[in-house]
Amino acid sequence: MPANIKRDRIILSHPSGSSAEILLYGATVISWKSIGPDDSTPSERLFVSGKAATDGSKPVRGGIPVVYPCFGAPTHPDHMKLPQHGYLRNNVWQFDGIPMDNEAGVTLRLTMAPNAAMKEQYSYPVRLQYVVTLAPHQLSTDLHVKNVASSDSSPMEFQALFHNYFRCVANDALVYPLKGLSYLDKTEATPELRSSTKLELRDGVDVKKFTDSVYLDGPKRYTLRWPGGEIDINTNLNDVVVWNPQQEAGSKIGDMEDGGWDKYVCVEPGTVRGFITLPPGENYICRQTLTVKV
Ligand code: TA6
After folding, report:
1. pTM of the entire structure?
2. C-alpha distance from residue 277 to each of 28, 83, 219, 284 (Å)
3. What is the pLDDT along the chain (294 residues), one digit of tens a residue?
4. Which atom of ligand 1 is nearest to the CA of 243?
5. Distance between CA atoms of 240 and 226, rounded to whole angstroms?
6. Ligand 1 atom closest to the CA of 72, numbered from 1
7. CA dist list (Å): 42 to 22, 169, 199
8. Atom of ligand 1 nearest to the CA of 241
9. Could you tell me if the CB of 268 is within 6 A of ligand 1?
């Protein structure tokens, strides 16, 4: 399968008709067109706002932004100089090869070599690779984190999340299986309410109203389902966020197209409560695999 290496992006394609487009800026997947299991014609599975910047001027509003080493506003002492959601989605990655290209799929590897500005924001020595694999019905994105600090250094602590914007009819979509999980409702009016856990009682979770829920210690396998479509999300990360701003919050987002909130649901696997602890010399892979079902 060809991998088309352009100045600011790489386009992967598969003989089945599936394709993926990855910006070097932020290693942001901005398109994933996949056939269904019935080998139907490929359709776009991700949402990118019509007002999104893809020129590197700001994080892309849509696709799959990579969140690391902090989710949301930083709370860890090592992260306090970082912007919301960290520094990977708003910096340029380097092309680092096509380690696999066969009938099973095609794999792209990108590497982040922190520049002086990044090191000023986040000084812990780390080597980062982002590995994207396209297959006929699947897309996987793996963030490889290697602690390259000296052996006498304290372990590094980080959070990571894949901020997936799945294209669908938002008000008809449901996320499974979240029933029985504890979650934080970030739409609550006060910090106290936003930091107190709720219990999810619904079999399928909808986003018909402004939704910004952080589900804790999930089953690591989720399904987003809507009439005519279904995507499975498999991960090794502990938690999962479900977000749709609806007009209430979406109309206040500068790079959100009018009515954009009707066209996507964010289902975001991540480890966002507490931190992944990684001793010097160790490697941790944050994984997700997305599978189109119908
Ligand atoms: O993942 C949900 C969330 O944390 C929401 O609270 C909202 O802020 C969203 O991310 C988008 O964040 P961004 O920094 O991309 O505008």
Report:
1. 0.98
2. 25, 21, 21, 9
3. 689 999 999 999 999 999 999 999 999 999 999 988 777 889 999 999 999 999 999 999 999 999 999 999 999 999 999 999 999 999 999 999 999 999 899 999 999 988 899 999 999 999 999 999 999 999 999 999 999 999 999 999 999 999 999 999 999 999 999 999 999 999 999 999 999 999 999 999 999 999 999 999 999 999 999 998 999 999 999 999 999 999 999 999 999 999 999 999 999 999 999 999 999 999 999 999 999 986
4. 2
5. 19
6. 4
7. 17, 18, 38
8. 1
9. yes
| Best residue for ligand 1 mutational test, from 61, 64, 85 (most atoms within 8 Å of Cβ) | 85
The structural domains of the chain, with segments of one domain joined by +, span 3-292
Ligand 1 atom showing the smallest separation from residue 71 Cα: 4
Selection from 88, 28, 87 nearest residue 63 by Cα = 28
Assigned CATH topology for domain 3-292 = Beta-galactosidase; Chain A, domain 5 (2.70.98)
Tell me the CA–centroid distance for residue 38 and ligand 1, in Å.
34
- How far is C-alpha 92 from the chain's CA centre? 17
Q: Is the CB of 72 under 6 A from ligand 1?
A: yes
